[in-house]
Design a protein that fits this description.
Blueprint: H1 2-12, E1 38-39, E2 42-43, H2 48-55, E3 60-63, E4 68-72, E5 75-80, E6 83-89, H3 106-113, E7 118-120, E8 125-132, E9 138-145, E10 154-161, H4 164-186, H5 190-197, H6 200-205, H7 208-217, E11 218-223, E12 228-232, E13 236-251, E14 254-271, E15 274-284, E16 288-290
Antiparallel strand pairs: 1-2, 3-4, 4-5, 5-6, 6-10, 7-8, 8-9, 9-10, 11-13, 12-13, 13-14, 14-15, 14-16
Helix pairs in contact: 4-5
Length: about 290
């Protein structure tokens, strides 16, 4: 009887098997942006494979002619030939490298990226900043603001590459607009130059009487017409320039001509389809009295 009981016990009442140790938690992929053309540390210009390593599989994919839109929650990625060419969001969880996110004010954008021209759309005011991307590609960081005041909030952010062909066309158009401006100044048609060839941002900073007064002080301006591209985006081109100006001054009781060399940068902005001067950042050299 004891032997039978032992056999029943050992065959039908087995000790519990030891539990398998839990799998270690998956460590999140460390993301550190290499450029300012990024959101949450994710650079525009990386591969789709790398983006999936960071965020996991996309929630949905929409295919269009030549590109696809991958959605990762509130983040959208435009993909061309396996490469991320744009990132877009309207969610406050995604920030730029300078901690600007949806919900930040336009004042905070200006503090982080500087004053910039606006481009109005049907719903929002758009502010764009040219930013260098991976491999020194041209890109643009765009903030859509719900209004035109410093206290108004950012409602959308996008970061995208600018196609080289598009950038080249923009640079040439900006250079032509700058030449037209200089020719207009040379003809002393200061009102036309002010009214038609300067952005609203520039005119807000420099009233017309001040602008005309500055122009009238110049008896001639010599520009080296080989303007050099510094940066470009969809709606902004920065050009480096060299120039010299001549003004009349009184020295030793006599009116004389002072020649002053200048170098610097001029930002041209596409405002409502027209390239205009937005910012001039000159550096003045040492003046020389001409004999």
């Amino acid at each position: 009887m004891a032997v039978v009981a032992y056999m029943i016990f050992t065959n039908f009442i087995k000790p519990p098997e030891p539990e398998e140790p839990p799998e270690p938690p998956v460590k999140p992929v460390e993301v550190v942006a290499k450029t300012d053309l990024s959101l949450n540390g994710i650079d525009v210009g990386i591969s789709l494979e790398r983006l999936n390593e960071i965020l996991g599989a996309a929630d949905s994919v929409e295919d269009f002619d030549g590109y696809s839109i991958y959605r990762y929650g509130a983040l959208k990625a435009e993909v061309r030939s396996g490469k991320i060419v744009a990132l877009m969001t309207d969610n406050s969880k995604f920030s730029t490298s300078k901690n600007i996110h949806v919900g930040s004010t336009y004042s905070e954008v200006v503090s982080a990226y500087g004053q910039h021209a606006s481009k109005s759309s049907e719903r929002f005011t758009i502010y764009e900043y040219p930013i260098k991307a991976l491999n020194d590609e041209n890109g643009v960081l765009r903030f859509s603001v719900d209004g035109v005041h410093l206290s108004d909030p950012v409602v959308q952010i996008s970061a995208r590459l600018v196609a080289r062909r598009e950038a080249n066309e923009n640079v040439e158009q900006a250079k032509l607009a700058l030449h037209r401006f200089l020719n207009t100044i040379a003809r002393k048609d200061y009102n036309k130059a002010y009214d038609e060839m300067l952005t609203n941002n520039y005119k807000n900073l420099v009233p017309k009487p001040q602008f005309v007064g500055m122009c009238e002080q110049l008896t001639s301006v010599d520009f080296n017409e080989n303007f050099t591209e510094v940066s470009s985006s969809a709606n902004s081109v920065v050009l480096a320039f060299e120039a010299g100006s001549r003004t009349k001054v009184m020295r030793d009781g006599k009116e004389q001509t002072l020649y002053t060399p200048w170098t610097g940068e001029i930002e041209m902005v596409n405002e409502a389809g027209v390239w205009k001067i937005n910012v001039v950042a000159p550096q003045r050299g040492e003046g020389i009295i001409e004999k």
